[in-house]
Amino acid sequence: MSKGRRMSKLFSSDGKSIILALDAYYFSTKTSGIEKTIQILPRLVENGLNAVITTYGLTKMYESEFSDLGVVLRADLSTNIFKESVPYTTELHSVEDAVRLGADGVVSMTFPGSENEANSHKIAWELAKDADYWSVPFMCETLPYSYHITTTESNRVKELADAARIGTELGADIIKTRLTGQSQDIEIIEAAKKPVLVLGGPETNDIYGYFNYVKHCMDVGAKGVAVGRKITLNQSPVGVVAALNTIIHKNGTAEEAAEVYKMELERERALKI
Fold first, then answer.
1. Could you tell me the pTM of the whole model?
2. How many domains does one find in the chain?
């Protein structure tokens, strides 16, 4: 299978994507909601979900549940899952492992500016090289200094743009990164030169604020999102995906997305789902 055909399993024909990150088991103990969300994947697919980022174990356990989705295998692993900043990662899976598993892509993190910078870049480069050999898309998650925002520099447009470009120079086909919510975020998109998927979002319980953030990301040129806990920990994962679909695939407003979310939440409460 060509890399283009595999990319088409991760992105819709509009070149955009909603990806659910289920890979937290590789770098965190905050995994609540993952198994429950997997059980309702058919409903998420109906509402616009394109693909999942997952682990080797989950891909084996839930082969049938992932059958209608693009699958991206997380190829690196935190060296200390009890340390939330995820300062160090190590290589884990090869692209050949992903191909044998039936995955459509692979992903690893890089941490420009961190003590682990050289090692994370080497992991990314090896994956990119082998991904080209096997015609598998490589997604590089480019995060200045740390997985979490730890300093002003780790969430500044200049550093984020530089980190995104480093991912591209290492050979990435897709860049996964955070944006700041500022109009200057367009500089990150332009620096990447590759489709940008936005991770996470503002640390807030305000789901409506999150929809505004996603709309901003799309307006500056992002091609979608790759998000985990914003979906898995929400009281209505289906509502969140449907709302993201409204913004990302239907070019709707944040207000329209909020209304879609509200309607789905009310429907689930009425049916006691």
1. 0.96
2. 1
